[in-house]
Amino acid sequence: MFLQSKLSKAAAANAPVRVCLIGAGKFGSMFLSQVPTTPGLTVARIADLRPDGARAACRTVGWDEARIGATVFTDDSAAAIAADDVDVVVEATGNPHAGVRHARAAIRAGKHVVMVNVEADVLAGAALGREARAAGVVYSMAYGDQPALTAEIVDWARSCGFSVVAAGKGTKYRPHYHQSTPETVWEYMGFDPEQARRDGMNPKMFNSFTDGTKSALEMAAIANACGLTPPSDGLLFPPCGVDSLAHILRPAAEGGVLEGKGMVEVVSSEERDGRPVFRDLRWGVYAVFEAPNDYAAGCFRQYGMNTDASGRYSAMYKPFHLIGMELNISILSAALLGQPTGQTLSFSGDVAATAKRDLKAGEILDGEGGYCVWGKLMPAARSLKEAALPIGLAQDVKLTRDVGAGAVVTYADVEIGADDDVAAYRRAMERANAA
Question: What is the pTM assigned to this prediction?
Fold first, then answer.
């Protein structure tokens, strides 16, 4: 209600929160669908590589011609970011290089940043967050996406006095999905290929969800925002429904699957043989937390909480997320409250490019969701020690030597241009965290 009260006052004063959206794809379109019914919020500018496509997206989601005519559509993102009629920049391109550059430009221009682009956030979010705080602007996760929603539950649990044992999300997973390519993605996801094509669904982007990369990125983002720990050798993806969260996502020493307490993990909506998990959490998020004393554990039982056999571990979860249709919360929180809805605070988790098949010297890596590599979650300390190539830098780079299937690609395995400013920014962040 507090946000709505602030928003109503902004609308009454004819002083709306003014947004520059960069990238009018699926996430951006879902956000745009909510704008006409949100008095006090306006999209002043939309920057997209295809401005006509962005206009078409606005018509598809229900904008009338008057609203379209009052909005600036451009392919010049730098000019859009710098414009005087912009308070908040929403980066929704999904391109890690573009995301880092756009965020830095927005921070320099004194604009708040809502980073939908988890690829860019995991690549360099710790450095971007420091820049934003030094500049006095908000750098925020995107509410509606699973990392921000998970971070919210973690914050709730800790604020109530509970210690968080595990946090994460659900997805559809089986081990062979790591080898998925844009040709197999619709089969694995259970979507009709022709319908996906008609709906304009990008197979490479959706394949990132299938092959485990997006899960790794989102768990790294949660670890970096919440001070949680990634598994030492990648996500386990245990099959688990909502009723079993507190039983399965507890330390292995107590009968669960975790290496310890305070971990990130993703639960699968499929058993390993393909059977559906009962009451799965495929579209949702969760946190498992521990009662601090016997009295609190008793309250769990008295108020119908699902617990493990000891009664000390319980879970809170949200079964769905509405992605871009919830993005207003981040935008308004940044502009009206000066607060992020989750923010990268550390470099605790990283996502390393990992070979899907035997790769040969001379091949060009095709990045996230492609045919060559998938992203494996690991502690940042391990990534730094092994000089692992982050998945965000694995696009359009040439291999200098063979890499076997399942092996982590390292910086020494690829050629990165000396003029790659984003790679240089990332390497500087690595040095700062290795010191």
Answer: 0.96
Q: Helices 96-108 and 118-135 sit at what angle, rounded to 10 degrees?
A: 10
Q: What whole-number distance in Å separates Cα of residue 373 and Cα of residue 165? A: 31
CA-to-CA separations, 389 to 234, 265, 346, 373, in angstroms, rounded: 15, 22, 19, 11
Residues in contact with 34: Cβ distance below 8 Å, sequence separation at least 6, in sequence order: 324, 325, 327, 328
Residue 160: which residues within 8 A CB-CB, separation 6 or more? Answer: none
Residues 150-207 pLDDT 10s: 999 999 999 999 999 999 999 999 999 999 999 999 998 888 998 888 877 889 989 9
> Is residue 147 within a helix (H) or strand (E), and if so which, with residue range?
helix 146-159
Q: What are phi and psi of 156, to 5 degrees?
A: -60, -50
**pLDDT single digits (tens) 207-248:** 999 999 999 999 999 999 999 999 999 999 999 999 999 999
Residue among 326, 358, 367 at smallest CA distance from 94: 367
Cα dihedral angle (164, 169, 173, 176), rounded to 10 degrees? Answer: -70
